[in-house]
């Protein structure tokens, strides 16, 4: 079985790279190869210009925070943090100071004597981060360590980690399936699927300009519309979905009229208008019927059906639900968006036919 | 409300029934050992410690007791390295014939002790070690080893599978990682298993019956031999010695591992 097929990237010093992908996309395997637990069948990994494939894991200068933390249960928090220092033969006199320093960095000052099972989930997380950093590794690896925490604590730890990372300027590779975590924590994101890199970009570009349908649908709440290309002129395209024609843009090469395409529109780009509101300034305006409404506190999410587009389902956010009119199920409304927000891709499934 | 109350009542009566049936034999034997009369009876006929005094003077029982300790120590000492390593290997590493090995190591569970005892008697006779004391310890280790493996496996399975990788990541070479991380982390299981092995060996009767003769008889066999002649309250006193040892083991377990951990790991 091939978990990772063709992956190549370079990481600048001091940056945070997140490998983002659904479970089973090969991201953890990639991380384990970098740490040295698994060997790649072909290819080479360089750390600071040195090929490391023949270097056993304990000789690599890599700190890792494991998925289930893998803290040593028979040691205290301080002993856990001191362990890599002892194993890497730091001057014994300097170890207590270093342990104190890292306990301070992760805000666990005075808790060094606690046993691991006496610490809360978030505190264990901090010990694991301190253990991975205490020996100043060249590279830090994070294997979804935050995934087991509840949402609030997870978001807290994401910011906390970002603070620690910037304070120490340690080069980091993070692996996650959580798109929010990737966007919050990273300087650079690689989206992986089926062992292949789908896109590598900075968070903003990745979000605004997804380079294919997988990336577009994996990040953000995106509606996909299947159709045929009608006209193409540079990046501007017109597609037919059901009985309707939509205007969008594309970055794909080699598209020509008549080709099956998929168009992606993000929920926050879709505006909701009452049945009689003027729609003049939208490049695309459609009649739609509300299928369901989901209240998420800070926003209302509508799922609407467009008869004109062959009953395609489209998600739309309505921010500030307190102020705006709320639409009920089966209400007829209008939706609209601008052509620059409708991204058109070659239909990936029909390509294989 | 009434429903939950009657449920509580049923549960408590089950608990008490279990407690009483489990502890009644122990209470009776405890009481009988303090009798001042000359026969085993309950309630005891008066109170005295004379049977304990008499037990102390019985050289046969004292020798049998020491032999049993010796045998149990041998059994425990062999089981600690073999059981621990087997359990770690079976639970952690993708070794060849893993299932077959697992079945093989747990085989003693399924074979009646009479069969094991007879088999070992023949083998020990063949290689001319029958009649010595140390082979009894080896035999007891063989038949009880599944308990040791079981106790250690329970701890190993509860460990994070990445624990050794974490040690390597911290810079520990493989042997160092095993000694400083894996072994200490499975220690609660090793202690549990070792105490279990000691108690089981201390109590073991059937296999010992096959492997011992009059010169090297162990305590359970010695008790059995005495019952066949005449039952005096000193036997009750010997049984109390057993109860005390069992309590010491539980106390040790609590001190070293924590009973909570022990009960959870099962």
Name the shape of chain B in a single word.
globular
Low-confidence segments of chain A, given as residue ranges, are none
Number of domain units of chain A: 2
CATH domain class of chain B = Mainly Alpha
Would you state the CATH class of the largest domain in chain A? Alpha Beta
Percent of residues of chain B in helical segments? over 70%
- Specify the CATH homologous superfamily of chain B: MetI-like
Structure overview:
The complex is a heterodimer of chains A (353) and B (266). By secondary structure, chain A is α+β, with helices and mostly antiparallel strands. Chain A contains 9 helices and 18 strands. Chain A starts with 15 loop residues before the first strand and ends with a helix. The relative contact order of chain A is 0.12. In chain B, helix 3 runs antiparallel to helix 8.
Short overview:
The complex is a heterodimer of chains A (353) and B (266). With 353 residues, chain A is an alpha+beta fold.
Features:
heterodimer, A: 353 residues, alpha+beta, Rossmann fold, OB fold (Dihydrolipoamide Acetyltransferase, E2P), 6-stranded mixed beta sheet, 5-stranded antiparallel beta sheet, 9 helices, B: 266 residues, mainly alpha, MetI-like fold, 12 helices
């Amino acid at each position: 079985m091939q978990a990772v097929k063709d992956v190549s990237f370079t990481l600048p010093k001091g940056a945070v790279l997140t490998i983002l992908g659904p479970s089973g996309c090969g991201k953890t395997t990639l991380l384990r190869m970098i740490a040295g637990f698994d060997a790649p069948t072909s290819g080479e990994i360089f750390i600071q210009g040195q090929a490391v494939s023949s270097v056993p894991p304990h000789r690599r200068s890599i700190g890792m925070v494991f998925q289930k933390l893998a803290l040593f249960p028979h040691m205290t928090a301080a002993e856990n943090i001191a362990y890599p220092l002892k194993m890497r033969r730091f001057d014994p006199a300097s170890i207590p100071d270093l342990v104190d320093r890292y306990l301070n960095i992760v805000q666990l000052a005075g808790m060094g004597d606690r046993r691991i099972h006496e610490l809360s989930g978030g505190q264990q997380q901090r010990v694991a981060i301190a253990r991975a950093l205490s020996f100043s590794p060249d590279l830090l690896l994070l294997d979804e360590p935050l995934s087991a925490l509840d949402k609030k604590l997870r978001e807290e730890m994401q910011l906390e980690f970002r603070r620690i990372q910037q304070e120490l300027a340690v080069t980091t590779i993070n692996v996650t399936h959580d798109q929010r975590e990737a966007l919050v924590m990273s300087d650079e994101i690689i989206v992986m699927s089926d062992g292949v890199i789908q896109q590598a970009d900075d968070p903003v570009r990745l979000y605004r300009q997804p380079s294919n349908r997988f990336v577009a649908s994996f990040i953000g709440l995106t509606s996909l519309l299947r159709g045929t290309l009608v006209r193409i002129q540079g990046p501007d395209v017109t597609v037919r979905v059901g009985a309707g024609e939509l205007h969008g843009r594309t970055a794909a090469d080699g598209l020509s009229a008549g080709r099956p395409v998929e168009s992606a529109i993000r929920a926050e780009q879709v505006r909701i208008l009452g049945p009689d509101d003027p729609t003049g300034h939208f490049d695309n305006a459609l009649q739609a019927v509300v299928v369901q409404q989901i209240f998420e506190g800070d926003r209302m999410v509508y799922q609407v059906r467009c008869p004109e587009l062959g009953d395609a389902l489209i998600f739309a956010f309505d921010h500030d639900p307190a102020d705006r009119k709320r639409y009920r199920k089966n209400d007829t409304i209008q939706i609209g968006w601008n052509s620059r927000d409708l991204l058109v891709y070659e239909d990936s499934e029909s390509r294989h036919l | 409300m009434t429903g939950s109350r009657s449920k509580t009542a049923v549960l408590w009566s089950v608990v008490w029934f279990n407690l009483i049936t489990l502890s009644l034999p122990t209470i009776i034997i405890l009481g009988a050992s303090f009798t001042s009369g000359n026969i085993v009876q309950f309630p005891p006929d008066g109170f005295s410690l004379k049977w304990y005094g008499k037990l102390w003077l019985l050289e046969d029982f004292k020798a049998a007791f020491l032999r049993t300790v010796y045998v149990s120590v041998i059994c425990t000492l062999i089981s600690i390295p073999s059981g621990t390593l087997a359990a770690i290997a079976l639970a952690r590493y993708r070794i060849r014939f893993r299932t077959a090995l697992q079945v093989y190591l747990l085989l003693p569970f399924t074979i009646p002790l009479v069969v094991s005892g007879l088999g070992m008697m023949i083998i020990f006779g063949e290689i001319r070690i029958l009649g010595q004391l140390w082979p009894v310890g080896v035999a007891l280790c063989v038949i009880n080893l599944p308990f040791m493996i079981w106790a250690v496996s329970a701890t190993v399975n509860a460990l994070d599978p990445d624990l050794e990788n974490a040690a390597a990541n911290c810079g520990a070479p493989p042997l160092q990682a095993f000694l400083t991380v894996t072994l200490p982390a499975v220690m609660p299981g090793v202690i549990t298993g070792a105490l279990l092995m000691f108690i089981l060996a201390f109590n073991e009767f059937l296999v010992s019956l096959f492997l011992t003769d009059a010169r090297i008889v162990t305590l359970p066999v010695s008790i059995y031999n005495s019952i066949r002649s005449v039952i005096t309250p000193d036997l009750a006193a010997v049984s109390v010695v057993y109860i005390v040892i069992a309590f010491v083991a539980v106390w040790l377990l609590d001190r070293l591992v924590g009973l909570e951990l022990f009960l959870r790991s099962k």
